Amino acid sequence: MTPEQITSRFAIKGTVEDIKPFGTGLINTTYKVKTEEEDAPNYLLQIINHHIFQNVPELTRNIKRVTDHIRGKLKAQKTTDIDRRVLTPIETLDGEGFFKDDEGRYWRMFLFIEGARSYDQLTNAKQAEAGGRAFGQFQKMVSDLPGEPLYPIIPGFHNTEMRINNFKKRVEKDPVGRLKEVKEEVDFLMERSEEYKKIVQMGKEGKIPERIVHQDTKFNNVLLDENDEVLCVIDLDTVMPGYVCYDIGDAIRNGANTGKEDDPNLDNVNINMELYEGFIKGFLQETKEILTPEEKETLAFGAKLLTYEQAVRFLDDYIDGDNYYKTESPEHNLIRTRAQIKLLKSMEENWEAMQKIVNEQ
């Protein structure tokens, strides 16, 4: 079925003028649906990648629960432009949250948020602070979501203990004979394996609470207005139970790196402490009232944790023969691994300063 045919199955207002591909997302295919009437909103139409998100009904339910809860909070605060401050799912004509076509594809629709922009890369500390504030606001908004826990859409997504155990098995098997090339990288990660099981163990022991966390805190998942003020957080597919350090940690790993995630020149790769401080400052402005002292102590560690975990995941895939991540060359996953290890080394060198910034907020 075509996007035009699919759109007619959703309860939209107005007449469709055109439908065009939109954005650069790697997971879900997205279209912008433009309407003719000035008083009718525009929409985003998406094909959900059900190979990654295999339980589409539970995924849809998670997003509806979270967005309904945030909308209720915004109404209570008498926010005026609510449709720009939270994603608005659009139901089908049958009142469902998604439509399954005759080819087995799953489609969903949201209101298009007008006058919003996002950035793939940060350029200054003000933007970093806005990013920290955005994910902090999200954390605060969903901290009292009632009812049963959200469905774990990707079980063990940031369970580093599980990732390490899988990695050890892969190293033992060496399925495509690449282990001899990466002994130095394997040794570096294995030497630190016990340290990075800490968060999962703290959770098991009840030292930190499990919360609803976003789990994909790239800066381009923050929508800003024309003044670079926060509107809302988007891409809620991985919102599920986890620990608060995952979100701030991955935001810093993604956003406060002076190089690229797959930078072949390791001299480019370091932690940008100015951007790091911006993220921490913005995040804690919003969350310091809800976080426990133990959680606050994990925030700086979260940046190291998520960088370590990503290095493990890239190297695991390299040793396995590149079956998970898209690669542009046979060495791509190894280049990615080395860049993450260099970023982690930079964080280790700046560790005292990183902790100090958290403690000063």
State the total count of DSSP E strands: 10
Level-1 CATH class name of the largest domain: Alpha Beta
The count of helical stretches stands at 12
Largest sheet: 6 strands, antiparallel
Low-confidence segments, ≥5 residues, pLDDT <50? none
Compute the gyration radius: what is it?
21 Å
What is the terminal-to-terminal distance?
53 Å
Percent range for β-strand residues = 5-15%
Structure class: alpha+beta
Count of all domains: 2
Give the fraction of residues assigned to helices: 40-55%
**What is the averaged pLDDT score?**
96
Instruction: Please write the string of helix (H) and strand (E) elements.
Output: HEEEHHEEEHHHHEEEEHHHHH
Coarse morphology: globular
The CATH superfamily of the largest domain turns out to be Aminoglycoside phosphotransferase (APH), C-terminal lobe
Do you know the CATH topology of the largest domain?
Aminoglycoside 3'-phosphotransferase, Chain: A, domain 2
Which CATH architecture of the largest domain? Alpha-Beta Complex
Task: Explain what you see.
Pfam families: APH. Keywords: Transferase. It is a single chain. With 361 residues, this protein is an alpha+beta fold. Strands 1, 2, 3, 4, 5 and 6 form a 6-stranded antiparallel beta sheet that branches. Strands 7-10 form a two-stranded antiparallel sheet. Strand 5 and strand 6 form a beta hairpin. The longest helix has 28 residues. It is globular, with a radius of gyration of 21 Å.
